[in-house]
From TrEMBL:
Residues 168-343 form the Peptidase M16 C-terminal domain. One of its GO terms (molecular function) is metalloendopeptidase activity. Belongs to the peptidase M16 family. This is Peptidase M16 domain protein. It comes from the Bacteria. GO terms for biological process: proteolysis. It comes from Candidatus Woesebacteria bacterium GW2011_GWC1_38_13. Pfam families: Peptidase_M16, Peptidase_M16_C. Gene3D superfamilies: Metalloenzyme, LuxS/M16 peptidase-like.
């Protein structure tokens, strides 16, 4: 699978990936801005704007007009917001790709931002915030980042708070868009059964009005962590949810493939070490998995588990034993195990890239945030070059007690019982 990167006459970048046998195509608009660019007063603005783009545009003034336009050709549409990027997409059959361009460009470039709709949507977002508060499996990610990035813009929730959301006005949206929705900060990705030349013409036609301008940088996160940390969110649940994680490396770091293989070995599937040790052997959890997250200048490696509240201490000990034990060479990595981990990663990547939306994400996020793209073939080659000693070395570099963080949601009152487990 390959791609082409072109720059339109107004400076807007566009990535195309042609899949001749595909009957569908996805058009995605990426903006290199997210919640870490907001002030305390406007916390949640990026996510709020994502909602407002669907509430009416110049050609289609209401949310109903937009949804009907997309439903009329059986399209799929949605958006996402992170701490560093926002995206909007429409997926359609190939024959309706120009309509997808028309609708998506109008939504993103010409949102109405009706003050009445803004006020109504505040209620919707406050209910969304409440929903996540009542969903510990989802909320634990926020709690963990509140802890590991505390004291910085990175430590805020993407959705903001109910108070900050209620204070946002139309002028905040207008100012924010003027600063961030500019050519240097935007990227267009299109993949599927398309023709590159035709797509470039459509992009020139429908995205010619993007304002020219340079992107704005966010304040760098500087960790103040000097030892193990923990954060307890008290909540009466039948199950406890936790993330154990270590401060790690930035997006695109040089050891990312070693990290991916380490991730796979520890918690990448139902035959991974943590799944076997935590769930199969001891019955401590239904769900347990390892994952890493990366940002411009930092990141982390974490393990999530939803555990029996009466056995949470045991679960924490087992997870830490597996991480430290691997780094110290106590639990050896075998040639068979590293081969399985590599094939797990390559197989999941191949399956995910059968979807044009995921293809846009694969190429788009690399270009948007790194301005450097590796193809799936190049990724596979780099994964295959990783050796067992490389994985040990990476584990040793990251699994250090002074970098350890524990976030817990559950019906507990004593934080000290958990702190004692971290040393």
């Amino acid at each position: 699978m390959d791609y082409r990167l072109d720059t339109l006459s107004n400076g807007l970048r566009i990535i195309t990936s042609e899949l001749p046998n595909s009957e569908s195509a996805t058009v995605t608009v990426w903006v290199a801005v997210g919640s870490r660019f907001e002030s305390a007063k406007t916390s949640g603005l990026s996510h709020f704007l994502e909602h407002m783009v669907f509430k009416g545009s110049r050609k289609r003034p209401t949310a109903k007009d937009i949804s009907e336009a997309i439903d009329s050709f059986g399209g799929e549409f949605n958006a996402s917001t992170s701490k560093e990027w926002t995206n909007f997409y429409i997926k359609s059959r190939v024959g309706k790709i120009e309509t997808a361009f028309d609708v998506l460009s109008d939504m993103v470039l010409n949102p109405v931002l009706d003050p009445k709709e803004i006020e109504k949507e505040k209620g919707v977002i406050c209910e969304e915030i409440a929903m996540y508060e009542d969903t510990p499996m989802a909320k634990i990610d926020d709690i963990f980042e509140n802890l590991i990035f505390k004291g910085s813009l990175m430590g805020r929730d993407i959705a903001g708070t109910k108070e900050s959301v209620r204070g946002i006005t139309k002028s905040d949206f207008v100012s924010y868009r003027g600063s961030h929705y500019v050519t240097d900060n935007l990227l267009l990705t299109v993949s599927g059964g398309i023709n590159r030349e035709k797509i470039i013409k459509l992009a020139e036609k429908y995205f010619d009005k993007v304002a020219e301008g340079d992107s704005l940088s966010s304040k760098n996160f500087i960790s103040q962590q000097t030892g193990s940390q923990m954060l307890l969110r008290r909540k009466k649940n039948e199950q406890a949810h936790l993330i154990l994680g270590f401060l790690g490396n930035e997006r695109g770091h040089k050891k990312k493939y070693e990290e991916g293989i380490l991730n796979s070995i520890l918690g990448g599937g139902m035959s991974s070490r943590l799944f076997i040790e935590v769930r199969e052997k001891r019955g401590l959890a239904y769900a347990v998995k390892a994952a890493s997250e990366h940002y411009k200048e930092t990141g982390y490696f974490g393990v999530y588990a939803g555990v029996d509240i009466k056995r949470i201490d045991e679960a924490i000990k087992v997870i830490l034993d597996q991480m430290y034990g691997l780094a110290e060479g106590k639990y050896k990595i075998t040639p068979k195990e590293i081969t399985k981990a590599k094939e797990f990663i390559k197989g999941h990547m191949a399956l995910s890239l059968e979807d044009t939306k995921t293809i846009n994400g694969f190429f788009g996020l690399q270009e948007l945030l790194l301005k450097k793209v590796e193809t799936p073939k190049e990724v596979v080659e780099k994964i295959d070059r990783v050796k067992i000693d490389d994985v040990y070395e990476y584990a040793k570099s990251i699994f250090k007690a002074g970098r350890l963080n524990l976030a817990v949601i559950g019906p507990f009152d004593d934080e000290d019982r958990f702190r004692k487990l971290l040393y």
